[in-house]
UniProtKB/TrEMBL annotation:
InterPro entries: ArAA_b-elim_lyase/Thr_aldolase (IPR001597), Low_specificity_L-TA_bact (IPR026273), PyrdxlP-dep_Trfase (IPR015424), PyrdxlP-dep_Trfase_major (IPR015421), PyrdxlP-dep_Trfase_small (IPR015422)
CDD domains reported in the protein's UniProt record: TA_like
Annotated Pfam families: Beta_elim_lyase
MF terms (GO), sorted A to Z: L-allo-threonine aldolase activity
Annotated Aromatic amino acid beta-eliminating lyase/threonine aldolase domain residues: 10-304
Role description: Catalyzes the cleavage of L-allo-threonine and L-threonine to glycine and acetaldehyde.
Catalysed reactions listed for this entry: L-allo-threonine = acetaldehyde + glycine; L-threonine = acetaldehyde + glycine
Domain of life according to the entry: Bacteria
Protein EC: 4.1.2.48
Name under which the protein is recorded: L-threonine aldolase
Length: 357
């Protein structure tokens, strides 16, 4: 590492700290002195109300520490141990949660779709693939499909359109499957689509949304939002048993006040998406770089020459992943990524690639 190692990196949007609005309300929550614990505080109630207002529906809201818990517990609430969950091969629930969904559901199996199916290269499920998996087996020896899980925006930085979500939910409904949305980067998807958040969730047929806060500027915490309230029965017990019930819950919930106020969540996501677009335009025509697809959310996926990756990481001190979601480098922008950081990174990519030729 050289001494000029840049402060901002492109490894993950969770490298970023908390945004000023989140910090402000975190401190405000502290200033309210003694508050009831375990979510009975004014802050948790205010934010839950705020989320119901945002989504324009009477949803049931819970807060947990991270996305793995949010997904695992949400899926467990919909599945018996003999059920299964349909997802893509890139799905975070399958590749990055250490078996959490299977563990918390006491064994529900994840059924991943065909990596060669249409849509798979963009980490998307399609109605046809869902139909194929649901109808593949109907005998007693195979775990019964119960849930379709989609990630919005996806693990490859792509975004399902409103129509795509609707079509998936329609086939799910026909096949009596529930629809779960891993929204670790939900904000980035809404920012890209320019739609109302209700349009790609409950209005499209989504039953449960794990709404990510951490990657969007919250210090810690994700919201689990049940649009179908029949699915959240006893969910509070599940959260507690899993060690995910924060006693001082106000410190997880209060920062969301700052995210909801003035649509900070959307502004943060728009900025991150814009930085990814900027990075894309800066490196797309660099000889040796092959961008996998145009970014829609806040990540650029690109193949770089192997020696270039080594130099960028080991000599230039840039941090980014080169193994996520099956090939290519994942270059991730955050709510606080600076234009100068993007430009400096892009310039180094260009310089290093040129030196190899
Ligand atoms: C980051 C992320 C999560 C949450 O991960 P945690 O580290 O458990 O908070 C969930 N899904 C996707 C797609 C993610 O990128």
């Amino acid at each position: 590492m050289n001494n000029d190692a840049p402060r901002q990196h492109f490894a993950s949007d969770n490298y970023a700290g908390m945004c000023p609005q989140a910090r402000h309300w975190l401190l405000e929550a502290d200033a309210t002195g003694h508050q009831p614990a375990y979510g009975d505080d004014i802050w948790t109630q205010r934010v839950s109300e705020g989320l119901r207002h945002l989504f324009q529906t009477d949803c049931d809201v819970y807060f947990v520490f991270n996305g793995t818990a949010a997904n695992s517990l949400a899926l467990a609430s919909m599945c018996q141990s003999y059920h299964s969950v349909i997802c893509t091969p890139q799905a975070h629930i399958d590749t990055d949660e250490c078996g959490g969904p299977e563990f918390f559901s006491n064994g529900s199996k994840l059924l991943t779709t065909d990596p060669a199916a249409p849509g798979a290269a963009l980490a998307k499920l399609t109605p046809d693939e869902i139909e194929r998996l649901v109808t593949k087996r109907s005998d007693i020896h195979y775990p019964k499909p119960k849930v379709v899980s989609i990630t919005q925006s996806t693990e490859l930085g792509t975004v399902y359109s409103v129509e795509e979500v609707r079509a998936i939910a329609a086939i799910a409904k026909r096949r009596q499957l529930k629809v779960h949305m891993d929204g670790a980067r939900f904000a980035n998807a809404v920012a890209h689509l320019g739609c109302h958040p209700s349009e790609i969730t409950w209005r499209a047929g989504v039953d449960v949304l794990c709404f990510g806060g951490t990657k969007n500027g919250i210090p810690v915490g994700e919201a689990v939002i049940f649009f179908d309230r029949t699915l959240s029965e006893d969910f509070a017990y599940r959260v507690k048993q899993a060690g995910q019930l924060a006693s001082k819950m106000r410190f997880i919930s209060a920062p969301w006040v700052g995210m909801l106020e003035g649509d900070t969540w959307l502004a943060n996501a728009r900025h991150a998406n814009e930085m990814a677009r900027r990075l894309y335009h800066r490196i797309n025509s660099v000889p040796g770089v092959r961008v996998m697809h145009e970014p829609q959310a806040n990540a650029v996926f690109a193949y770089l020459p192997e020696p270039a990756i080594k130099v960028l990481q080991n000599e230039k001190g840039w941090k980014f992943y080169d193994f996520i979601a099956g090939g290519g480098c994942r270059l991730m922008c955050a709510w606080d990524t600076k234009v100068e950081s993007v430009d400096a990174f892009a310039a180094d990519i260009a310089t290093v690639c040129a030196a190899l030729r």
